Amino acid sequence: MRSWNELVEAAKTEGFSVQLVSGDTPVVGYMVALAGHEERIPVEAFTLDRLVRYVKAHFDALMEDNMFLGAWMSDGHVFLDVSENVTSQAKALFLGEQRSQLAVWDVLNSQSIPLAPSPVV
Q1: Do the domain assignments include residue 33?
Q2: Is 51 exposed, middle or buried (0-12, 13-18, 19+ CB in 10 A)?
């Protein structure tokens, strides 16, 4: 696994997904965030301390089987989440919609798959 400082820098550039127990990064499948575990931080405020506080706050979820710490940057913000690696695209899209996610991440092709917005009720 990369060092914590390297993860902070990676979050500000290419992003990452890492399983905290094993240090593994997914090479296939689709990453689907768990609802309620998302955090958005302005990039200039994103530090090692902010990353460590996020991990502590979401520690139980991150220790579950097949759960990964995910980070990426968009629109001047670092986004953190707890993500599940799902092998089936259909299942990933279904879970993403159920969890009201904007997109799922296709690991193999390094691309986001947008989901339809949830209807307003």
Answers
A1: yes
A2: buried
Residue 118 falls inside a structural domain: no
pLDDT exceeds 60 at position 27? yes
Q: Report the alpha-carbon distance of residue 3 to residue 98 in Å, rounded.
A: 33
Residue position matching structure tokens 């902070």? 8
Sign of CA dihedral 106, 109, 62, 44: negative
What is the domain range of residue 100?
4-113
Average pLDDT over residues 38-44: 96
Q: Which two tokens stand for residue 75?
A: 């629109």
The amino acid occupying position 1 is: M
Q: Does any domain span residue 31?
A: yes
